[in-house]
Amino acid sequence: MRAFLAVLVAASFLTACGGDGSDGSATDTTASTGGNSGECADVEPPDPRDAGSQKAPTAALDTSKTYTLTFETTCGSFTVTLDPKLAPKTTASLVALARDGYFDDTIFHRVVPGFVIQGGDPTQSGSGGPGYTTVDVPPSEATYTKGVVAMAKSPAEAPGTAGSQFFVVTGADAGLPPEYAIVGTVTEGMDAVERIDALGVADGPPSKPVVVTTVKVHESS
Questions:
Q1: How many Å apart are CA 166 and CA 108, to the nearest integer?
Q2: Which of these, 6, 91, 122, 129, could form a disulfide with 18 (CB 3.0-4.6 Å)?
Q3: How far, in whole angstroms, is CA 124 from its chain's centroid?
Q4: Contact status, residue 44 vs residue 180, Cβ threshold 8 Å
Q5: Distance (Å, whole) CA 57 – CA 130
């Protein structure tokens, strides 16, 4: 059954990354994060906003440094350690978008329990993107195991294509083909990821809104 679900979800997965989003006014979300309480805060979702006016970065990240993204959410925080060597263009894009506040006040619009949680679309439609794409083809032996963070794409797009939508694997092994750019791994806060996963209802929005209030970039030598 899990293998069937993996194939079914992969077939429709993970939406077009670079498409235009819906227009909408941004909102200043005042909800507090879930913190370490072990619970997800009850919040209203932020208003959807247009997301297609960003510019792709022209330089890769410094591979001699370590880059992490800390996602502050209404279910707590989790940290992703990026892998610029594996996905140089896409990791540079994520850092640039995070520094611009692109992911602030966005939602996890898709949660498939025991499989993945997906976010990164300010339009909340599942089809929004930053107005450009990057391509980092994963190695043929790539696997998508628990805690792996990779990028969404439509079936029509070439392997490794990415916009802004990302997913975190929550199952032991998602069983996906090596077509989704792998950008890093959750190295702290997997409990928060699991709280988000627990709100999943089949394949779609979670049972209550989960908001990413901000994403912080940390750079160390």
A1: 10
A2: 129
A3: 13
A4: no
A5: 12
